[in-house]
Design a protein that fits this description.
With 194 residues, the chain is an alpha+beta fold. 34% of the residues lie in helices and 28% in strands. The chain has an eight-stranded antiparallel β-sheet, with helices on both faces.
């Protein structure tokens, strides 16, 4: 009788400990032990929009430019305090590191004023550019319309199947996206690092 009590107690302990572990294992695995959508999403690389959002969460302000370089995004932000920051966002973890922050006295005050007044920010420009030209964003740069031209975002996109990158210009006021008429074969910015 005492032996069956020990066996019952041991079985209860195994079920109590094993039950939550089994439930946790089931939550992180799909059918036949494949990773669940949540696990797969956690492994997905941070895209341009995600990098911009992570950067302004870390350093509140307005994104000036984004540039993918291997496993990181380089993001320039003008902070709400008026200071300029150069940030790095890891594409795997989404962690943000401040590389440099300064008062930005050297920058063109007029250009900064135009950027901060733009109705279309970098994140909206990325969405508009991808709607016009699907692919993977490689870089996003503010262009203040030198020589009296219109202000726009220059979004460089590489097609999903590979090939030459294309530039999409997104109007900073209307959000209208226009695909550049020429390929950027001569662009050395294309690292081909997906």
């Amino acid at each position: 009788m005492q032996r069956s009590t020990y066996i019952s107690t041991a079985a209860a302990v195994v079920l109590m400990v094993g039950g939550p572990v089994a439930a946790a294992a089931a939550a992180t695995s799909g059918a036949a032990g494949t990773p669940s959508a949540a696990t797969a999403a956690a492994r997905a690389d941070v895209d341009a929009t995600g990098a911009a959002e992570a950067a302004v969460k870390h350093y509140p302000g307005t994104v000036v430019s984004l540039d993918k370089d291997g496993a990181v995004w380089h993001v320039d932000v003008i902070g709400k305090n008026g200071k300029h920051a150069e940030l790095t966002v890891d594409t795997r973890s989404g962690k943000v590191f401040t590389e440099h922050a300064d008062s930005d006295d050297d920058d063109n005050a007029q250009e900064k004023k135009q950027l901060l007044a733009a109705k279309v920010n970098a994140q909206k420009a990325v969405k508009a550019a991808l709607a016009a030209r699907p692919g993977q964003v490689r870089s996003v740069d503010w262009d203040d319309g030198d020589n009296g031209g219109a202000r726009y975002w220059d979004v460089e996109i590489q097609p999903k199947g590979g090939g030459a990158t294309r530039h999409v210009h997104v109007d900073a006021t209307t959000g209208k996206a226009t695909v550049s008429s020429s390929d950027s074969d001569s662009d050395d910015d294309n690292d081909n690092d997906s």
